[in-house]
Every structure is written in C-alpha cells, then in structure tokens.
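To: structure desk
From: M.T.
Subject: fold request, one chain
Message: Could you run this one when you get a chance? Sequence is below, nothing fancy, just the single chain.
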Amino acid sequence: MRTLTRPAAVVMFFALALVPLTLFGVNELWHGRRTLELGKQAAFPDKLAPNTFRRISDWFNDRIGLRYYFVQLGSDLNVRLLHLSINRAVTIGRDDWLFYTDDEDRPAVSMVDVRGQLRLALPQVQQIDDHLRSVSATFAACGKSAFVVIAPNKQSIYSEYLAAETSAITTRLDDLLQKLGPEAKAMIIDPRPRLRSVKSAHPFPLYLKTDTHWNDLGAFYVYQTIIEALARTRSIPHPEYASFDQYDIDVQPFQGGDLAVRMLFSPWSFPDELVIVHPKPTLPAVSVSVVDDIHSIYRNPKGKGRIVLSGDSFSPRLAAFLAEHFEEVNHYNYTLSAFEDLAFNGVQVADAAADVAIVEVAERHLPILLKEPKQLARVCASLSGPPLFRRH
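Reply: Done. Structure tokens follow.
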C-alpha cells in the first residue's frame, strides 16, 4: 500500500504546484468576491539591462494564475490572523487604528515626521515664504484674500494610537510655521489645535480609523476654522450656519477605508464607523455641477461672494460646507495624475470672479507649497460683485 501512496502524494503535490502555471494569465476571482485594487502589472523588459531578470520575474509574478487568490489568502493570513501589515506604507496601531506613512519614501513604522526627523531645508522655507508673500500682496492689491489650509496627517491628531506618544515633538509643519515670516504665516490655516481640543467631545473620532482622511465630523471642524479665519478679513454671510445646530449626525458601520481595503485588501477586518454630517432642511439648498474631471461648481442662490477652493482628496467635503455661505464655490480637486498642478492659480480666480482663493494641502505633501503660483497677474482682472462680502 505504501508503495502506491508515497508516489501518489508526490505526484499530487507537483500537480497542485503546477496549477498556477497552467492558468498563467488567468486571474479572475471566485464568484461573489470583490476585485482587488492592485498595482499596475509590470511590463516585459524590452532591452537587456542589469535588472532584466528581476523585471522578468516581476512580469511573471504579476501574471501567474490564481494571483488574486494568493494575494487574498496572504492578506487573510497576515492581516486577519497574525495582525501584521502587508504594506510598508501602512502600520497597524493600537485599538486597530491604521496609519499611513508621513514620508512616502520610508516605511510607515518609521513615522519620521511625528518623531521630529523630517524638515524642509532653509532655502525651501525661504522659497515658500517668497511664494506666499507674493500671493498675499497680489490678492490684497484688489481687496481679495488667499489662504492655505493644512489637512493634518491622522497621526498628528491621534498620535496616542501609535506605538509611542509623540505629540510633544516638533514636526516639519511646526518647524515651517516657526520659520515663516508673519505675512506668509498669516495665510496658513492650521486646524491641528482645534482638532486636538475637540477630539474627545464626541463618542466617535474625527478621522476614519481605517483611512488616511478625516470623516465628515473632522471636516466640519476644519470648515469652522476656515470660516473663523475668513471672518478676520471680511464679512461672512450667515456665520450662524457654521454651527452644529444646523446639522444632524448619522453613524453607520463601515467596511474600511483606503488603508484597510485598497492597501491591506482586508474589508471588515478592522472595526470602523462612517460618520456623516447632514445639513438640516433649514439650510439653503446647494446645487453641484461638474465641469470636468477636476472642476466642480457649488451654487447657492441665497449666498454671497465667490471662492476658489483647490485641494486634494481632503477638499470635497470642505467645498460642500462652504457652499452653505457663498453664492459660488469653484472646487478644483487635484488627485492622482493632476496632483502636481495644485497651486494658486490667477486664471481660476479671474474666471470665477472670486474674492477668496484657498489651497488645501495634506500635511504629508507640504512640499507642494514649493510650487510657483500660476499667473498671479490675472488675480485682479475682475472683481466679484457682492459688496457685502468684501470688507473695506
């Protein structure tokens, strides 16, 4: 009997091992499973080079049969069972909080910024200072205003869920604010103090535990901070709208955000909640029209004044909140391939006849402020009409 079973076991082993090769290029998931969001498949090398064989290996691994199965099973084993991250850009913190790296060139476990090890060089600080002072002077020349809103890294607000407490350490943003001149510094809206002070005021957090982004509640507090900053330079129509009394909060179970689903392939593995802030019927109705892939216009016939808001994936919810006050919010959402175009843009301001321009930048992308503003000479090409919005 053994003379039969031993060879049979060997044959079965090799047969199973060769299945992925026989299904080379076949990567469909079994029925009912979602599509994994994996990186772009490696291309076959078109010329000989020192890394040719490694590139051939990458090409082969990306097309081996049952690849999706192996990725999913590997994720289930490491993330669900062993509670280990399978992505160097994501670290699993205390109480199942997920954090994205604060420096995309280094693994998330380093967290060099919250450890006080990330800095802009002095020439870079001077370049940012020069750009912001130029923007401020250009806008002020025709009674307009410009601001930069920083979207904090989640670990800047919830550092207690990392492996070690780091809240007292000077970060790159802290260092930049200390070194900027007063005119440039006055343009920056830093919501970190407010978010830290209110994060215990609710039974749910301000950021998604499994995502890089704030939830509606966090965005609402940042919106309040923006309204307060605007009010220091101009009249704000209906400031009372920026109150929680005007909104309802709804909380729903959530399968997981970009860190859990897109980067760890593990929906429902980490407990999380989707916090949604709904305007009450007493607030004005706002309509939204999509101009193109990055440009949307929020219109409120009961509002006054116009704003251009340019930002990354943190900015859409801010645009919706701001639209309750203003006649028009031109929102430019620079994500993915368009991200490098994020900057103050005089043409956008002139085309929208806007009184205010706001650029939102994620804290981990702070170097985007090094980009030179575009066509500032156009800022004063037209003045928006509503005199009640401008403060003289």
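Reply (cont.): The CA atoms of residues 93 and 162 lie 5 Å apart. Let me know if you need anything else for the meeting.
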